[in-house]
Amino acid sequence: MELIYEKSVAGRTGVRIPLSDVPKAAPLPASLRRGDAAAFPEVSELDLVRHYTNLSRRNFSVDTNFYPLGSCTMKYNAKVMEQAGALFAGCHPMLALLPGGERLVQGPLSLVYEVEQQLAEITGMDEVTTQPLAGAHGEMTGIMVIAAYHKARGEKRKYVIVPDSSHGTNPASAAMAGYEIITIPTAPYGDMDLDAYRAAMNGEVAAVMMTCPNTLGIFNPHIAEICEIAHQAGALTYYDGANLNAIMGKVRPGDVGFDVIHVNLHKTFGTPHGGGGPGSGPVGVKKGLIPYLPTPRVVRTADGSFGVEAHPEGIGRVSDFFGNFGIMARAFAYITLLGGEGLIEVSEMAVLNANYMMARLKGEYELPFETTCMHECVFSASRQLKEGVHAIDIAKYLIDRGFHPPTVYFPLNVKEAIMIEPTETESKQTMDAFIEVMLEAARMTRENPAALHEAPVSTPVGRLDETRAARAQQVCCEG
Amino acid sequence: MGYCPNTPEEIREMLAVIGAGSVEELFSPIPQQLRAKSFELPAGMSEFELMGIMREKARVGGTEIVPFIGGGIYDHVIPAAVDHLAGRAEFYTAYTPYQPECSQGTLQALYEYQSAICRLTGLEASNASLYDGGTAVAEAALMALRVTGRNAVVLDASVNPLHREIVCGYLASLSAGVVEVAPAGCASDLERLMGCIGPETAAVVVQNPNFFGTVADFTALAAKAHEAGALLIVACYPVALGLVKSPGEMGADIAVGEGQSLGNTLSFGGPYFGFIATRKRFIRNLPGRIVGETVDQQGRRGYVLTLQAREQHIKRHKATSNICSNQSLCALRGLIFAAALGKRGFEELATLNYDKARYAQGLLGAIKGVSVLNRESFNEFTLALPKPAAKVVTRLLDRGVAAGVPLGAYYPGMDHALVVTVTEKRTKAEIDALAALLEEALWN
Question: Residue B382 has what pLDDT?
């Protein structure tokens, strides 16, 4: 398909801007003005609408296709959440920071306060900040809070421990917060090797970061012990809430011994993924860490109104205002709509769906860790590999059959990984249809592997040359 | 509730296939002593009841106030087509385009977005978006540390103070140094900025227009930074770039900014998007996702996520950034906004902002005891008032106008200074009313 720039015709205009009702001003001095106008496309509104409507049709999405992308919790985002979020489109955040401005924005401030309370109850933490703008940003914020805690105690610790099955963001975030990383291998039981962990823990470790259930979809039964070992060495414990969808109402990280947690609102709480964001990554902490949360804090004052307070001991600001407010408005709507019982049902059905998927596919696909899974299950295409078929080939075949592929080649500690997260919003019929195609792919591996190597054939483009892209570094069109 | 479709009968069938007696049995790997101690949330409700609660909250949202405030976030027009097209579920409910063949919509749109950012900033390589303006400045500073192998930045204090706080937090985590240079009045102190560049300086960070609204040319600063082996980072306001000299034209190495003003609603602080663009030779040091052009086996043009070896899911702690989810949908809104206005419309929009601000500046600056502190500005300017600005602003809020951002909280000694923002949405009548109200607040 042509680029919008290739549809541009000099002199063509699209949307009209407001007419001027003021006199023309003397221009800026030439030394401060740009030479040529930015070469944005010159198209009519219809050109524009047709272009982006047709482009959108080149996407698979949750609203059009089953999208079991493991680790991403691609659940259906109910439309009422969109309606709810849009109500705040006209609220200027700077109003909250003006002297005397807080009383004008009591609605959105109360929402920030209440969603923090909701998330604190769901996770078992004492206070939550909504400032972090995505999961990884939450991780970084959480580790900065941990660093501030150690610093206040006069300690300078050097390391953060992560399991090798962790999301790549965990070590990357800890590194950005100034720490060196110790990686612990996975034991045969599918989670962090406890002995190796114990051996690595010492007084120089600032924190251990755990995802539970982990990226293999396995709940770590030693999680409380892991926290205890950390605490005995004076280290803190960080819970990556990426997989919270599995355990709502069942386990609260705060009860188990975690000191800091982030939650991905765009995963668990039904807000849109938007082709890669916006996300939102609120961070919750236990009491002793509250002083180190970012500034400002939304507080409830004695008269019941909501105010914005500086948080002088904290780590400073991690985003301009109160985080991705539009996303937390949707999450607040989701939690309020579903209520406690609804959230428990979400986790129960997410786990049921994943176990059903696992039970029906384990005959044909290798299950590296055979145990009851939580919200997702991880297979290996190792059997198929013997016939020359890779996980990627199966993924591409699924596209031809109308399914977005699962996550492949992650987690890194499983060879030819296929990570399936159906989520609770999918029906048995949808999963059965997907399972049939997965079984068909396994049959084709034996009978006609070449066909799998050619997939996909139904898409506007076939497999793309990624090496060429990396070499050419063509990341914007000339003009 | 929970949008869970399976019926009790289907649940029984599924449990039979699994070989479990109940759903609860599936949670048996979780030891009893680890179970939740509390889960006190109210019962759920219907959509109808929920929307009642949400409307009540939105009712006290300050939307009746006429905003002459900016501070990085601006009240601009948004063409209807932006909402409509970015709201397409195929964009809205997809995720990061890991599987390019069934994500060409998102990938091509992001490639077009990157192209728009390059054209706007006058630079050669953009990523697919960052979180917001503040974190974008911080990421640019970290990028400069990587590019130069040095460990400090010179930060112009006329950069948005909220952004500076974020930058300082990021840099402190890595024990990198920050030298803040106080402005000379409402302008950057170019001489002192140049004087602070040393052998450990990775970059000089400036903003154009700066927090006071002053427009400047940093060409000489770029040259001076380069002489010393440092980079120049220019934070910019995209709508202003319809008129003012681009970072690329000044010789800047990295341009960043808050993208909100391109088609994103105010939404009480987000979601917005940050943008970053640089010279092609620094592309491997960019943070975040990058979309690149390539071909398939039949030679058809297509787009993929590229240079992924920089990223956290591959490089883990050695990645250029921890960023994973970014702000694709908001960036898409920015792209559609740019395309809807087009080359000429965008320039006209910038000119209209400039004209309205000049009109307001003339009117407000003529009030007895009030003076304008900037030499040249775009759609924001700083007034010196004969009274503390905070008091004036509080008083005018009662009259339904947010007259500006008082500077006292951010710049010691500037208690009487007020930054006033005038976008194309402010009418002549609103500007005239502001002038009358301000005069009244100052002298009655």
Answer: 98
pTM over 0.95: yes
Q: Is the pLDDT of residue A270 over 90?
A: no
Q: Do B90 and A456 touch (CB under 8 A)?
A: no
CATH class of B80-337: alpha beta
Other beta carbons within 10 angstroms of residue A13's beta carbon come to 18
* Residue ranges covered by each domain of chain B: 66-75+348-443, 80-337
Q: Does A64 touch chain B (CB under 8 A)?
A: yes
Using CB atoms and an 8 Å cut-off, which of residues 135-164 of chain B contact chain A?
135, 142, 162-163
Distance from the Cα of A76 to chain B's closest Cα (Å) equals: 8
What does the pLDDT read at residue A478? 84
CB contact under 8 A, B322 and A16: no
pLDDT (tens digit, 9 = 90+) per residue, B78-132? 999 999 999 999 999 999 999 999 999 999 999 999 999 999 999 999 999 999 9
Residue B38 above 80 pLDDT?
A: yes
What HEC string does B376-414 produce? CECCEEEEECCCCHHHHHHHHHCCCEECCEECCCCCCCC
User: Of the candidates A435, A421, A420, A72, which has an alpha carbon nearest to the alpha carbon of residue B93?
Assistant: A72
A92, B402: Cβ pair inside 8 Å? yes
The answer to whether residue A177 sits within a structural domain is: yes
Partner residue facing B94 (CB), from A61, A318, A459: A61
Residues of chain B neighbouring A457 (CB-CB closer than 8 A): none
Query: What residues 238-267 of chain A have any CB closer than 8 A to a CB of chain B?
Result: 247-252, 255-256, 264, 266
CATH number at residue A166: 3.40.640.10
Q: Is the peptide bond before A41 cis (omega within 30 degrees of 0)?
A: no
